[in-house]
Each structure stands twice: as structure tokens, then as C-alpha cells.
Amino acid sequence: MVVDSYLDDLPITYLKGVGEKVAEKLSRLGIVSVADILFHLPFRYEDRSKVVAIGSLKTGESSLFEGQVELAEVVFRGRRSLLVRLSDGTGFVTLRFFHFSNSQKQAMQRGQWLRCFGDIKSYSKQGVADVVHPEYQLINEAQRGEIQEGLLAVYPVTDGLHQASFRKLIRQAFLLLQQGMGIRDCLPQSMLSQRGLPTLVDSLQQLHYPDTMPSLDASQRPAFKRLIFEELLAHHLSLSRLKKGVRCDVAPSFKSTGESRQRFLTSLGFELTNAQNRVIQEILSDLARSHPMQRLLQGDVGSGKTVVAACAALAATEAGYQVAMMAPTELLAEQHFKNFQLWLKDLGVQVDWLVGQHKGKTYESITADIAEGRSNIVIGTQALFQKKVIFANLGLVIIDEQHRFGVHQRLALRDKGAKTGVYPHQLVMTATPIPRTLAMLGYADLDLSIINELPPGRTPVTTAVLPVSKREQIIERIEKGVEDGRQVYWVCTLVEESEALQCQAAEVAADLLRECLPRLKIGLVHGRMKAQEKQTVMMQFKQQALQVLVATTVIEVGVDVPNASLMVIENAERLGLAQLHQLRGRVGRGQRESHCVLMYKAPLSKNASERLSIMRETTDGFKIAEKDMQLRGPGEILGQRQAGFMRFKVADLVRDAELLDQVALSAEEVLRIQPELVEPLVHRWIANSVEYAQV
Rounded CA gap, 485 and 487, in Å? Predict the structure, then answer.
């Protein structure tokens, strides 16, 4: 069919209701064109086809229920909140509103019927169900049971965008398709027929409006298969271009005596492990060559990657070149800055740091030092990418916590140092253990170094797996631990459709802990706080001014707090092994015996049960990674945020590894038969994803 125009070419502002402000919010999600919104897929579906009796509500499930208001009161327990007690004759449920208007309060009259939808929790000792900020509507008794909705898609959104608004935009885009507009199908028809894959329009229709609730084996549905294959193909074509380009580049060859490095290592007061020494030699060998080093350094939490990075940096500075080191958070950047300053202060090496909080004269002074070559090592966040940041002689780029950044992001920093055809060397580091085979797939353009042993003296962390029904005992354990001089992390890991709700969950947890532990000093850190606010709270925790820190997973990458020796992770069953391992690595950094409590909601799936068992049985990150590969089968696409080393919308390198050979052959076919499809294919899946991780 010949179409006059494509949704791919229409700006998102073409849709009704999308002005400048809404367009800016959508752009945060990578949505720029009308086609983009159709590729922004649901992460789960809600079944609103039946009303569940209140007496049958189950903790940990999302349910539709109806009830009559018996009591509505404003309470002050740490913070102002509206509590509404509902009953339908089978049981009671408490609705909690922390943000509410007077009109909402007035509407909650005794006897009023409400239809609600939300996540069922239980915080009270009596085990009464709680729902925080449910969706609700006022109904009369005659309307009870009149259900008009069925399956409802739930999308990842951002602040200021609501699910209802998003669904309207999706409907508009599909209406345009029905009216004769097109969307580019970037796969040749012969390829679709050969592999039994549906058309693009049919695939998108099934994903946004499924006929039935998708099974756990969602990735095996033809609609998903089609998009998985297309996305992997786009990444393959993109990486192929990158590899081809990098290997032709020229880099400075570092010829150093190693004197600075030896003085630094002697000053440490401890011996490096054999693995650290081996990896340092691999890196130095790369740096002596005249083409850019592209090396991935893998090391478990606490394995000593930062010391290795310092040795690489000294090789560059001794040869007369600058070093840029990028971390995903200001907290981590500051920690690296302080370590490097302490280590290198007697070696005549100037270390600076550049982050978003630096403004005015401070910013101007730092950037001037960088531009004029006085700064030897610059440590920062994505602030290093700003146009005003110009390096005099950048020779080495180090990127920490690589799993927070994508391939194209690290190459953007590399390009910043390019001068007259000469490119800096690049070292990327990750504490997320990746099985070697997988690393070779995901980082095909990188050489691999592994630090596979821990320094002596590291305290192993013991892990307990407990149901949410043991919450009170866990809170008692916290109190005893604090009395013993320990500090505690309480991590909220709810996987919700918006950052706002994640942060809200952490706020609720902090309030409830303050109620239960009024004598303790409890702090809160989440992703919606300003960087300076987060930093202040984290420093208070590090300096032991706070005894308990409630946080979202923003602390996955954070500062070292040696006295923190107990961590509680809520909803641990919702996280992958790699992230659980990363979080657990926040404790066990001092001399105290350390513990991690993984709290879960029953019933556990077989897969979740195995994941938690592995965490209990071992602290070896590489064993955990291998097991992760075995366990992460089909079906985890819905409800999971892809937080791996490459940013995928639907594909998963572990689960979909068997497709890669087919993808490679198909890439050759596309290049041979229809090379004009390469650019639109890469643009669709990758172009809008060059964003820095939001934490």
C-alpha cells in the first residue's frame, strides 16, 4: 500500500493535547515523533474485568474492589495524611492519601461507595489491607459491579504525565494508522515470511491492545518476537559501524617510566592482589599502542577497581596527557575525587571534579584549568559532556559503573577528546559481573579484563530471606542493631510505572519506620530529590548523624559507609540477581559482621524463589551472574526495567542470545539487499536513547 505520509515523520505535537510542555515531558521518554509513542510499550497489564471482594484481597496483588466509607479522618503521624476505611460486608481495607485536597476529604462521606484500584499492602499489626493512593471513583450502590473496562495497559511514564493521558495519545496514533497514514516497516518482507513474523502494525496492535492477558511467556508471543528481532538487528548494525570506525583511529602512545605508579602503590600500605596486578599489565600494554584502548574492566563489589583505574590514570599523566573519569552520580564522583586527591597529593598531580552543582566562578575556574591543561585528572558526571568543557590534551577516558551507560554514551565522551584525528584511550568499569560469553556479545567492541578475587580482610555478608509477615521482627532487629552501634539501609524497590510512585513508596516506608522506631534518627533518599539534598543526607549517614537510611535503588551506586552493616531490601523478589548483588555490596565494607535481609511477598514464583536462594547461598558475583543467565528466561519483559549494559526496549541479551546468529546473518542480508533500511532502523531503536542514566 502506498501511503502519503508516515507517523515516523510527524512530530509528537501533531497529536491533540500535546503542546510544548507535554512534548518536553514526552521527550524525556525518548518520544519525539508520533511513531515513537507506539514503540513506548506497556510494562504490564491490569485486569479490571472483575471486582474482588475486600475480604479476598491478597497482599502483593493489584486489585479492583468496591466498598462503602465507614470512616474518613485526617491524621498526623509523622506527616499529614487522609485515612479512609472501606467495607463491603466481607472485610475492611484502609486507603491512605498523603496528597489530598479538601474536596477529596469532603467527598469521603460515611456511606459513600467507592470503586478503587491499587496495590494491596499490609503495614498494620492487625494485618488489615492498606492501599496507598489508589485510583478511585465515586459510585452509587446501584452501580456496584458495573464493569466497563477489561485489560488496561500500564506504561512507563514521567512526572506530569498520567496513564489516562498517555492512553489517549496511543489511541490517537492508532486512529491515524486507520485513516491511511503509515509507519515504516524496516524489515524486508522476505525476512518476515522466512521467520514467520507479523507485520509491524499487527505487532504493535497486539502489544498495546492484547486480546487476552499475556502469559508469563510473553517474549515468545509473535508480536514481541518481531520487535525483539528488529531491535537486536538495529544494535548489531550500529555496533558493526562503531567497531569498524574505532579500529581505524589513532591514539597517543603512553611511554612512561612507571615511577609515579610505583610511588603510589608503595604509599597504599597494602599489597595488590594477583588479579589487580595482572589487569594493570593488560591495561599498560594497551596504553603503549598507537590505536585507542577499548577495554572493559569487570570486578566484583570491593575488588579494587578504583586502584587499577588510578594506575592507568598515572600512566597517562606521566606521559603528559589529561584523564577524564565519569561516574553516574555526584556522590560517587565526589568519592572518587576524594580518593584520588588523597592518593595522588604527593605526586604533583592536580585532581579536579566537575558536577552539576558547580556554578558561577567555581565552574569557570575548573573549566579554565581543564582547558589550559592545569587539571591532570578530572572526575565528574555527565557534566563532563557540556560544550563549555574543553580538554587541552585528553588522553584517557575512564567510565565507572558502565551498566548505567550505553555504548553510544561512552563514545560521546571519547569523541570529546578527539583532536586532529587522534582519540583518547578508553577504560570502562563495571561492578556488575557479566558472564564472559555475554560480555563478548554486549561489548563486542571491547577487550575484557576481570578482577576475579577480593582483597584479604573483606567481611562476607550473610543473607537471610524472610517473608513480609516478619516485618515487625525485622524492625525489632534494626533497633537492636542500632543499639549495638550499627547503621542500617532500608531499601524500597517497588517497580512502579512512575518515579513519583517509587519515591512515594520510600516516603511511606520512612514514615512507618519513624512511627515504629521513634527514638532513632531516620533519613530518606530518593530519585526526586535534588543532587545536593541527596548528597547532604548521604553524608549525614556516612558521618553517623543518621542511624537508618531509607532509600530507593539510588544507593545501588553510592558512597562507602563502613559502619553500615545491615541492609533490608523490600520486595526483593522483584529485582534481578545482578541488582540485588550490587545493593548488598553497600554493606560489609568495614570490620563488622554484616547482614542483608531480603524481604519478599508470598507466594513466590519458582524463578523468584531460586533467585533469592542463590543470594542466600553465595556472595560470589560471578557465580551469581552465571546463575542469572540460567534463570532469566522468557517472560520477564513485562514489569522489568532493562538496566543492563545496553539499553533495550524489548530485547534481552541473556534471554535472546540464541537469536544473535540469526541477527548477524540478517544484518548481512539487509546490507546486501536493502541497505537503505539501515539508517531508519538504527534511528528508530537507538537514536533517541542516547541519554544519561537518571538516578
Answer: 7
